[in-house]
Amino acid sequence: MHKKVKVKPNSRIQKIEEEADGSLTVHLKSPPIDGKANQELIKVLAEKFNVPKNSIIIKSGFNSRQKLIEINP
Predict the structure, then answer these.
(1) Which residue ranges traverse the bilayer (predicted)?
(2) Domains of the chain
């Protein structure tokens, strides 16, 4: 399964919002430095979709706020 994800780092609270088009907006507490926000994103999505962290792959947008995520069950 592929998901478009918009990441908002340095947020006060950690939450996931589902948009009308099926994409996700993910608010993360981590800063976008040294991949910390990407690591937190993988952890949060793994918990939401109830899959192991190694099942989630950032396909594109590693250094961007707009990402394409692949989730393998």
Answers:
(1) none
(2) 2-71 (3.30.1200.10)
